[in-house]
Amino acid sequence: MKIEKETPEFALINQYFKQLTTPRQDVVLGVGDDAALLQVAEDNLLVVSVDTLVSGVHFFEDVAADALGHKALAVNLSDMAAMGAEPSWATLALTLPEVDEKWIAGFCRGFAGLANRFNVSLVGGDTTRGPLSITVQIHGVVAQHQVMRRDGAQVGDDIYVTGTLGDAAQGLKLLQSAQALTAGQQTMIDRLERPQPRVEAGLALRHLAHSAIDLSDGLLADLGHILTQSGVGATLQLDQLPLSAELRAVMGDDKDWSRIVSAGDDYELCLTLPVACREAVAGVARQLSLPISRVGCIEADPGLRCFDQQGEPWHPPQLGFDHFSTS
After folding, report:
1. 58 is in an annotated binding site
2. Do the strands 233-237 and 303-307 form a parallel or antiparallel pair, or are they unpaired?
3. Which residues hold ATP (predicted)?
4. Of 127, 157, 196, 249, whose CB has the highest number of CB atoms within 10 Å?
5. Is 62 assigned to a binding site?
């Protein structure tokens, strides 16, 4: 049987997605076959994570295509950062309501920007018709003795947070208000739509940290996972939480701590490290030009205790974002 021309699906793959297969020596076979062939060194662990973004749940329908391409990969890179893994390969399952080549080109442009920055090669995936949703599976590698996990926090550890918290939550609030935006407000929307995965920080601290997690569902909920899996408790000092100048300007003196520590989409790292590592952490922060703030400590007593700037106990109305919450 003679095939006159490639199908529309494979035409899209060849025109847009094959270009995302950046050259890597460990990619034996990438996009274009039934499966990818990847070479993993014997002394490394394979790290695998997957995230799905659904229209109307994780993003507004009118979000820019390049921002969506960026975020689809960024949220997965954040998982690699939390494990201390070097991101290496990704697969993409893209469900589209229709073939819009301008949208696809923009999506690939946003995806490629991050993929090239972190040397990630797209090695396979699937395209199909239906309501817009994007699933990315990412693979990375890390030496077994350097991997960061949630279950390693130790009593006496300092708790650190990279970057700043609460900007994405404020950005979402601004988008929902549909008001005219200032430059500072647009910065917070960019934090929501174009999060910056802290891969460099994860790689720099993986040989020092006892535990780590990325902040996707809010600091309280995600730190809570570390405490539960490590069998420890913690004290958190709210006045030490890192806030951007833009968020401080919006909030003034009346800070909504619940929104800062319970809303999702920060995609920063929360790590616990021994007290002896304070100078090393400060050095990494200077090297990366990235705030890495000490916000609390790990304790033996179970539970998470929060204190405000007056030293008074503060009790959050909720812990964090939950996809299946009925409230």
Report:
1. yes
2. parallel
3. 125-126, 150, 216
4. 157
5. no
Length of the chain: 327
Residue with tokens 């329908």: 61
Q: Is 79 annotated as a binding residue?
A: yes
Instruction: Tell me if 216 is assigned to a ligand binding site.
Output: yes
To the question of whether residue 125 is assigned a binding role by annotation, the answer is: yes
Ligand-binding annotation for 222, yes or no, is no
- Does the annotation flag 217 for ligand binding? yes
266 annotated as a binding-site residue: no
pLDDT tens for the 327 residues of the chain, in order: 334 444 455 555 565 566 666 667 787 766 666 777 888 888 899 999 999 998 877 777 788 999 999 999 999 999 999 999 999 999 999 999 988 889 999 999 999 999 999 999 998 888 889 999 999 999 999 999 999 999 999 999 999 999 999 999 999 988 888 777 787 788 999 999 999 999 999 999 999 999 999 999 999 999 999 999 999 999 999 999 999 999 998 887 777 888 899 988 999 999 999 999 999 999 999 999 999 999 999 999 999 999 988 889 998 876 544 443 444
10 is an annotated ligand-binding site residue: no
Q: Is 278 annotated as a binding residue?
A: no
**Is 265 flagged in the annotation as binding?**
yes
